[in-house]
Amino acid sequence: MQPIAPAEESQLDGPASTGRGRAVKLKTKEEAAQWFADRGITITEWALERRFSPALVYQVLAGTRKAVRGSSFQIAVALGMKSVPVDDFESA
């Protein structure tokens, strides 16, 4: 098994990936927010389609939620701001 690079150098793909542990750059909150503007999608629309609380998505994007566990963490992963822990890939 290959060692994983430190967080500042690379991260594993989120849930939209192939699950092969390919290194990708995580999005900043600004990049995640810009993604919506680039596609003309509202944050509320995106949140409701994925059964997330729109208010919680706004809090994650604003940085007022640390997104270390629970729904806020799942939102950050879905936005590409956090990676799925390595042990989740190994058990899948």
Automatic annotation (TrEMBL):
InterPro entries assigned: BcepMu_gp16 (IPR026365)
Region (Disordered): 1-24
Domain of life: Bacteria
Protein name: DNA-binding protein
